[in-house]
Amino acid sequence: MVLCNKSKIKRKPILITLAIPVACIAAGIIIYYYYSKTEEIPIVPEKEIEYYSGKLVPFSDGNFLATLDEEPDLKIIDNIPVLSGEKALYPVYASFVQAVYPEHHNYRTADILLPYNYYFRNEYSAYEYLWEGKIDILFCMEPSETQLKYFNDNGITLKFIPIGKDALVFFVNENNTINNVSVEDIRGIYADKIKNWKKLNGQNRSIMAFHRWYYSESQKMLKRIMENELILKPQRVTDYKNFPNAIGYSLLFFLYREDEYDYLYTFPKGSEGIKMLSLNGVYPSKEAIQNNSYPFSFNFYAIYVDNDKKNKNIEPFIKWILSRQGQTLISKTGYISIKEE
Q1: Class of domain 83-165+299-337
Q2: How many other C-beta atoms are found inside a 10 Å radius of the C-beta of residue 22?
Q3: CA-atom Rg of the chain in angstroms
Q4: CATH 3.40.50.10470 fits 166-290, yes or no
């Protein structure tokens, strides 16, 4: 005859009942600890341009636009060209306006300055304004093949004048043992074909690849450099967090401020704790970007429609932009001049 210990039978449901809240509390502590530590991980953001905050309005008191230390060699007082461009370039052409346009104009009304992402639904509408004659100069990267085809099919002649440079740079935690990758490695990472740093002779850690937002300038540049590779399975679409196994990217413009012209308080300074990677053995220095030896260097342009109806001040204005003074403003804004100032 087998005797049952009734006290043990009764104790089991009690123990199970007690174990559930204890497990939940323990899990909560672990989750809280994890997220509190995650919050301590440094972030490298890519901020929006604050067009009308006052910081970037030409001639407004205390704005942070780049300025010259001398009188400009050009002043435009009538037939003022209407300008637009990509949001990341807005501080550049707003600085041009402050240098050579008349001060009395109310630039908050935006009838001369049309911010790219403030007024336009997408990149095509900015070009529509250009070919319809609503704007005179568009500051942006080179148009897509689709956009160029539209101009060619309609017999519209565009002039592309390179005026400055930037680069798409990739960065990792400063303790990552990787310092150099190839262009194909980058494409492999962002096509989700290379998933562990060990494959690149690094540590045995899975790669946490951060993406930027879909409409950001950096994300658009990544799509260009991927060529025929598809960008698959983005692990993180947000501001970069500097985890030990992370990799991120940005336009160089958004990443560092290393001189006295730290005028845009919306952007990070220094980005401590990260390091930029060399690509194909070339570090993204100013010289390497200027001479195009860094693989992901690119120009940005002043673009206008070349016809008999064009504003007579377009060409003198662009000539001034390419002068020492115009190139100085580009450098002070945080970009790289197309040539030495």
Answers
A1: alpha beta
A2: 9
A3: 26
A4: no
Query: Mind listing the pLDDT tens digit of every residue in the chain (341 residues)?
Result: 545 555 555 555 655 555 666 555 554 444 334 433 444 576 666 656 666 667 888 998 888 899 999 999 999 999 999 999 888 898 999 999 999 999 978 777 667 887 665 555 455 677 788 888 889 999 988 777 777 787 788 888 889 999 999 999 999 999 999 999 999 999 999 998 999 999 999 999 999 998 887 667 788 788 888 876 666 555 555 678 889 999 999 888 887 554 444 444 334 444 568 899 999 999 999 999 999 999 999 999 999 999 999 999 999 999 999 999 999 999 999 899 997 65
pTM: 0.79
CB-based contact 309:137 (threshold 8 Å): no
Are the folds of 83-165+299-337 and 166-290 the same?
yes
Report the C-alpha gap between 182 and 153 in whole angstroms: 38
What is the rounded distance in angstroms from the CA atom of residue 150 to the CA atom of residue 130?
Answer: 12
Q: Where are the domains of the chain?
A: 83-165+299-337, 166-290
Contact 249, 171 (CB under 8 A): yes
